[in-house]
Design brief:
This protein is mainly β and 322 residues long. The protein has one domain: Glycosyl hydrolase domain, family 43 (Tachylectin-2, Chain A, 5 Propeller), CATH 2.115.10. It has two helices and 21 strands. The chain has helices at residues 3-18, 21-27, and strands at residues 36-37, 45-48, 54-58, 64-68, 73-79, 97-105, 108-115, 123-130, 139-147, 159-163, 166-171, 178-183, 197-200, 209-217, 220-227, 239-245, 266-269, 275-286, 289-298, 304-315, 318-321. It has a five-stranded mixed beta sheet, with no helix packed on it. A four-stranded antiparallel beta sheet has the order 6-7-8-9, with no helix packed on it. A four-stranded antiparallel beta sheet has the order 10-11-12-13, with no helix packed on it. The two termini are 27 Å apart.
């Protein structure tokens, strides 16, 4: 290494030591965990099953399913449902579900998902339960929450979180960004008349924020969201940002103190190398480790959407991908 390069590298190291965590993350993104088998996925949600192993559900099919024993080898496992529930056709002609979210509570697995059409907020979030969490075992319970074209939010991209004995669902895509509503723990559906809270947006139309996921760590709740444009292969500009709050209902701010309701959000993961447009994320825990699951578009494979998995570490109470 030349003297000039050595000095430059040393200066960069000092700079990274004093910059916010987001600058450190942006400087060099780690590649996702190497995986084999069925890698194609969009909007993944992953859970570590009580019976052992993992299941991932996603947009595509009738909520497409993949299973793994070790997070590295993933196998196609069909679909959550054998056929679309009839009410889905109220929202699109093909009964096509989007962006599921899986969780476990009260002795059952809970699967939330969205049905809608591109470019409209005539949308609904449905809920189903299963004793095992595996595909083919789900019982659908209909709509948990919905939106109409007269609303200023879009009822897609659900993300369920428990906090202080209450159950909440973050949701939203474009329109006014990320919202939240309280759920009835018994039914898993929105409490009638519950306030629709506002968590994150951008000051510029079309308010390109979606795909929320909330993680509780230490004193804070962390709101992850996907910013900018997905679904365009290697031309996608998706990226993942995060803010935190002492309360699950917000307000969420980034490491500079900028509210996520004013466009704030620390950059966690963006395009790098072959991994284009990471987003559609969800977080899950397994054996004491928190993981971030997301899709990216593989520049080495014509922009095919694939599963990304990275560990989440914590630096000064802010998440960084490993």
């Amino acid at each position: 290494m030349s003297v000039r390069r050595a000095v430059t590298a040393a200066a960069a190291a000092v700079l990274l030591a004093v910059l916010p965590n987001t600058a450190q993350a942006a400087a060099s993104y780690p590649d996702p965990l190497p995986i084999n088998g069925q890698q194609i996925i969009h909007d993944p949600t992953v859970i570590h099953l009580k019976s052992g192993g993992y299941v991932a559900y996603s947009t595509g099919g009738i909520i497409g399913a993949r299973t793994s024993k070790d997070l590295r080898q993933w196998d196609d496992a069909g679909n959550a449902f054998a056929a679309p529930p009839s009410w889905w056709y109220e929202y699109n002609d093909t009964g096509d579900p989007w962006a599921p979210d899986i969780s476990y509570r009260a002795g059952r697995y809970w699967l939330y998902y969205a049905v809608s059409s591109w470019g409209t907020n005539h949308s609904a979030i449905g809920v189903a339960t299963s004793p095992s969490g595996l595909p083919g075992t789900w019982t659908d319970h209909g709509k948990a929450f919905s939106s109409e074209t007269t609303d200023t939010w879009n009822a897609i991209d659900p993300a369920v979180v428990r906090a202080d004995g209450r159950l909440w669902m973050a949701f939203g895509s474009y329109w006014t960004g990320i919202r939240m509503v309280e759920l009835d723990p018994a039914t898993g559906k929105a409490i009638p008349g519950a306030e629709v809270r506002h968590l994150a947006t951008r000051p510029d139309a079309p308010y390109a924020v979606e795909g929320a996921s909330i993680v509780h760590h230490g004193r804070y709740y962390y709101l992850f969201a996907s910013y900018d444009a997905c679904c365009q292969g290697v031309n996608s500009t998706y990226k993942i940002r995060v803010g935190r709050s002492a309360s699950v209902t917000g307000p969420y701010t980034d490491s500079t103190g900028k509210p996520m309701l004013e466009g704030g959000g620390d950059l966690v993961l963006a395009s790098h190398g072959r991994y284009i447009g990471p987003g559609g994320e969800s977080a899950f825990r397994a054996d004491g480790t928190t993981w971030l699951a997301y899709h990216y578009y593989d520049a080495n494979d014509d922009g095919t959407p694939k599963l990304g998995l990275n560990r989440l570490a914590w630096r000064s109470d802010w998440p960084v991908v490993k």
